[in-house]
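Saturday, quiet lab. Running sequence design on the structure tokens for the scaffold JK sent over.
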């Protein structure tokens, strides 16, 4: 029960997070990004379930092609009659090379057909992970100008300076929401890996989780700076 991620609970957590953001920062861009992440989570839930299912049509087609290829190989061998008398070494080597080439081509064709389902699923997962990787960077962009170091300090703004109208408490909450969104992005990605044994898929999911963890660590450095400036007794 507690050995795998529940996509419904992951979605519910994102729904709650989106509500919290909208209540704290109504109609903010951060809320829109969270809504987009929620949409991706819902799509990923259905997509991961579909990808985990066997593609029976491809498996049947692969089996038929493999059996037909092997039958063709057996037939060609059975039709190959070698007469030991009058057969020189050059002809024997030429016939052997032709047989080996046929065997290699048939083996490659069978391997391609047998692994086609895995490669098709992998391409779909990697495409989905690219979407999640992109939104992770979008989340990171929203916290770039939220700098607690200069918060509350008398500064001279320029026309291009970002607006800094959040209180310290609001700034901490904003950064915390970004960190939670990054963490949940990694959890949505993990939905694709928990039912897959494909090494490339697992590696890609791990890389995305490393990315979100690293981005979240930067945010927590900012949150720590806020807490250090105003410790709670």
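Result came back. Writing it out in full:
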């Amino acid at each position: 029960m507690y050995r795998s991620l529940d996509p419904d609970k992951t979605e519910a957590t994102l729904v709650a997070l989106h509500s919290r953001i909208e209540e704290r920062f109504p109609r903010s861009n951060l809320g829109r990004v969270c809504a987009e992440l929620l949409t991706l989570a819902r799509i990923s839930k259905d997509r991961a379930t579909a990808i985990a299912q066997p593609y029976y049509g491809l498996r049947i087609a692969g089996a038929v092609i493999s059996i037909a290829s092997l039958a063709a190989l057996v037939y060609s061998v059975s039709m190959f009659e070698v007469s030991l008398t009058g057969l020189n070494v050059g002809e024997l080597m030429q016939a052997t090379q032709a047989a080996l080439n046929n065997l290699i081509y048939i083996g490659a064709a069978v391997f391609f057909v047998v692994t086609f389902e895995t490669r098709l699923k992998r391409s779909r997962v990697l495409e989905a992970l690219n979407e999640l990787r992109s939104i992770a960077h979008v989340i990171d962009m929203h916290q770039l100008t939220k700098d607690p170091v200069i918060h509350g300090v008398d500064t001279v703004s320029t026309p291009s300076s970002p607006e800094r109208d959040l209180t310290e408490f609001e700034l901490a909450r904003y950064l915390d929401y970004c960190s939670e969104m990054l963490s949940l992005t990694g959890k949505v990605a993990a939905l694709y890996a928990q039912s897959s044994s494909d090494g490339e898929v697992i590696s890609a999911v791990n890389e995305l989780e490393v990315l979100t963890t690293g981005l979240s660590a930067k945010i927590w450095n900012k949150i720590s700076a806020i807490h250090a400036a105003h410790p709670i007794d």
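Notes for JK: The chain has seven helices and no strands. Helices lie at 7-24, 29-52, 56-79, 89-114, 116-143, 168-193, 199-229. Ask whether to fix the surface positions before the next round.
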